[in-house]
Amino acid sequence: MFLSSLISSAKAIQYRVRADLLSRTNSQNAFIARDLKAVVRPELLRLGDEINENIYEYLSSGRTFSDRQYESFQKIVTNPHLKESDKLLIFNALKQVKLKN
Q1: For residues 52 and 74, what is the distance between their CA atoms, to the nearest angstrom?
Q2: Please, which residues have CB within 8 angstroms of residue 77's CB and are 6 or more apart in sequence?
Q3: pLDDT tens across the length of the chain (101 residues)
Q4: DSSP letter string over 15-74?
Q5: What b/e readout covers 40-72, taking b as 16+ CB neighbours within 10 angstroms?
Q6: Helix axes of 84-95 and 2-23: crossing angle, nearest 10 degrees
Q7: Burial of 86 (0-12, 13-18, 19+ CB in 10 A)
Q8: In the chain, what is the straight-line distance between the N-terminal and C-terminal CA atoms, in Å?
């Protein structure tokens, strides 16, 4: 569920960025796409590994994610294309992540 929430939020960001770009005039469109295979995918894999490692370390120390951490989570997750509902979806899924025994 956590990975699904990240994928859904990433798609939402992608759609919102695209909508922003399409609403601009050509002179405002200075966006340069990054190479998917050479840049984007390797970075996504690196970030995924980093997220997994950090969650594992956090949960391995006996801690869990709880509602009282949401305010901090909101401050850390700052992408302007993420709505509050997107953040809540990710955070609620994060609270459900458990280590396998």
Answers
A1: 19
A2: 87, 90
A3: 999 999 999 999 989 988 888 887 766 666 677 788 999 899 999 999 999 999 999 999 999 999 999 999 999 999 999 999 999 999 999 999 999 97
A4: HHHHHHHHHS-TTT----PPPIIIIIHHHHHHHHHHHHHHHHHHHHTT----GGGHHHHH
A5: eeeeeeeeeeeeeeeeeeeeeeeeebeeeebee
A6: 160
A7: buried
A8: 18
| DSSP-derived secondary structure for 48-62 | HHHHHHHHHHHHHTT
